[in-house]
Amino acid sequence: MQSATIASTPRCDASAMALKRDSGDYYFEEHSEALVSAFNVFYDDMQESEKRVTATARDMNLIEAALAVQDESYDKILILMRHGEAKHNVFERQYAQKHGSSFEQANEDEHYPVDPMLTGKGCGTMLNVSNRTATFFNKETGLLPDLFVVSPLRRAIQSALISFPHDAPLTSLSGTPWVCHPACMEQANGNKSEFVSSPELLEETFPGINYELFNQSLMRGDVYNSNEKVPLFESKIDLMNRTDAFLEWIKERDERVVVVSSHAT
Predict the structure, then answer these.
(1) Sequence-ordered alpha helix ranges (H) in 137-222
(2) Most exposed of 35, 137, 192, 231 (fewest Cβ within 10 Å)?
(3) H/E element, 185
(4) Which long-range contacts (CB under 8 A, 24 or more apart) does 189-194 make?
């Protein structure tokens, strides 16, 4: 789990591997999260369109995020988490061991999991994460989530719910909103594990989450890998475009500390 903060200081030097704050008080050797670099690409595009830019992104750990929440120069604090091991991961390994074949052949098997849930190992990993969230996300640190955003894929939703049990919808006293956002999906690559379930099934399995944005996207036909819509493959340009749209959505919201449960790409 990592965090990325959106600071209100001007960006004076940047590349895909490094950022420098205007005051020169910190440097970043590399970024392991695509969302951080995507945020800066997004603001590069805004600069080219002659819009005013006063933001940059910083990669940090949870200790630094807990300190950053006290710093008003940071407009947003994004907590980025990836789901745990899911059933399609195990299926692919076992299929390869049994048949000595490629992923593509495993994906064509009729038993390949569609929109799979977590394995027992994946649930255990997320339970370990919940110990960290209990340590870092509390009134003592001041790092309290204002919003949870999850991918429509079930393994990402399940991971977030296990990792933040005290903030779960319907049972949390804080009433922190949970939103299912289609822009947080895995990059569509023809894998049946990326086929999304219907909003009705998700609501039945994970009640209390707001699926309105996801449902609207399905109705517009712009969700990759739904059972009714194609294409099943998404270009990197398309992926960046929806990342930009997601960051714009985050920027326009009032919540400051935002947990995002998504995927590797």
Answers:
(1) 154-163, 199-205, 212-220
(2) 231
(3) none
(4) 189/232, 189/233, 189/234, 190/107, 190/232, 190/233, 191/88, 191/107, 192/88, 192/107, 192/112, 192/113, 192/114, 193/86, 193/88, 193/112, 193/113, 193/114, 193/115, 193/116, 194/115, 194/153, 194/224, 194/225
8 to each of 23, 106, 176, 209, how far by Cα in Å? Answer: 12, 47, 25, 30
When mean pLDDT is compared across 7-11, 92-96, 156-160, the lowest value belongs to 7-11
Whether the upstream peptide bond of residue 10 has omega within 30° of 0, thus cis, is: no
Q: Quick one: residue 175, left, alpha or beta (phi over 0 = left, psi -120 to 50 = alpha)? A: left
**By three-state DSSP, how is residue 71 classified?**
coil
Kindly report, residue by residue over 74-92, the tens digit of the pLDDT.
999 999 999 999 999 999 9
Order of strands across the sheet with 56-60?
Answer: 56-60, 2-7, 74-82, 257-262, 147-150, 178-180
CA dihedral 118, 119, 124, 130 (to 10 degrees): 0
Polymer length in residues for the chain: 265
Amino acid, res. 156: A
Mean pLDDT of 178-206: 90
pLDDT in tens, 117-134: 999 999 999 999 999 999
pLDDT of 45 reads: 55
Contact 166, 211 (CB under 8 A): no
- Predicted TM-score (pTM) of the model is 0.79
Tell me what the mean pLDDT of segment 181-207 comes to: 89
How far apart (Å, rounded) are the C-alpha atoms in residues 25 and 40? 19
